[in-house]
Amino acid sequence: MSIIQRIGYRKIIYLLVLIFTVTPMIYPFGLPVEVSTQSNDLFNYIENLPAGSKVAINFAAFAGMYPDSQAATRAVLIHIMKRPLDIVLWHSGPDGPLLFDAEMEFVSVGDRVYGEDHVYLPYVGGGEATMAAIAENIRGVFSVDIDGTPIDNIPLMQNINRAEDFDLILVLADCGGATEWGVRQWNIAHGVSVGGTPCSISYPDLLPFWKTGSIIGMTNGVRGGGEYELLVKKPGPGLKNTDVMSSLHILFIVLIVVGNIGDFMKRSGGGS
Amino acid sequence: MSDLFRSSRIPLILIWVAVLIIFGDYFFGGVFNQAFSTLTVEWTVIIANIAIIVGGISILLRSIMVSRRSSVDIVERIMHGWQVVIAVFIFAIGTAFGTTSGTYNWLYTYILLPSWRTVYTIIIFFMATASYRAFRARSGPSFVMLICGILVLLRNAPIGMRIWPGFYSIGTWILDVVNMSGGRAIMIGSVVGAVSLLIRILLGKEKILGESE
Fold this sequence. Notes:
The complex is a heterodimer of chains A (272) and B (213).
Chain A: H1 3-7, H2 9-26, H3 37-47, E1 54-59, H4 66-82, E2 86-91, H5 96-103, E3 118-123, H6 127-136, H7 138-141, E4 168-172, H8 178-190, E5 193-197, H9 203-212, E6 215-218, H10 221-231, H11 237-267
Parallel strand pairs in A: 1-2, 1-4, 2-3, 4-5, 5-6
Helix pairs in contact in A: 2-11, 4-10, 6-8, 10-11
Chain B: H1 2-6, H2 9-28, H3 31-68, H4 74-97, H5 102-133, H6 140-156, H7 158-163, H8 166-202
């Protein structure tokens, strides 16, 4: 009986995953990251929005998958808060308000005034239907902001009531279709451009929308976070985690190749 | 009267009304159509949020039922009972102190968040063993899929570019061209399917809620 059989291949793989995850955390490789066209498009679109443009943000994060798009979300928030844009943010996930509060500890709002330059609205369930309802009539869905202030008493909300009042909608930290809701309910129905920071599993599904121009730009999970951190010149967890991603991807490829060689040898009678 | 409620007529009439209102606004516009459409969509949000409450209650009731069933394994009963205790406790804290209070925030940040993240992070270990055991090139299509998967992995990881810069271009081409064309086909197919399902529902050919045998 070989040593691998005695220990069990699962335990060896688990140990390898641990080593390949921890090593780059302790000794970062600092590999250069190529900025993708999609991330660049998102950055340029936000950068070129005229001062005073209105941006809607759907913070779609939920705790489990959030780490994948956290770096990109933070970098986009840093970027958008730095620009003189009017921001209306709401949550489509129950975890949203608490995750957003934690995120804002790393994002400076500068000399922005709450209520005049940005407004945070609470969580409302209902998914795509809610997205559609907000596009039709914000006051039909929200009567107060996250602190309980009636939105009619908030200066920024005086001239905002439907999708047409916005220049862009950003869907941040989406892992379950919220960006597609944005495309269907805000872009197709009302012509508002959509951008976002989806996690890697949603990213390939959204590429067709980017190609047609419905999505003006987006990031791709952890890697996209690293790219956007480079664009806003704020290195953070995204760039650090791309090293972990590199080492784990190499491990996965090696495991796939070894597994296939073993399988091929077994089938061709070369192994037992 | 009870037959009327049991039959599929009422849900069908409601679906017809909702469809006509939404389609009327989308294709013909007008203030009247828009007002009705907005009202319908707002009601959808209300119903969806009520459904969340109903869902929460039904999960809770099911857990109470399972935890009291003697035929169920003792560990499972304890797990369900524990789930009920935790849910009621967090609900009580949220109701008493508010969901933005420090107590609720502490529960979320130091109990729920780490547990949730741990559960999701453990998946990476299963993915690693799966990549060794399950991703097999046993046929032509599976071989192509495996190669595409490896190339996209190398495209996404910055190390791929360090090994050979071409990996980035090839991976991007797979994502932007091959994946996109396939994705579009699936998307168009699913939308055509949804439209045909809607037509079947409207014509009463599809079994819907409230229909009795």
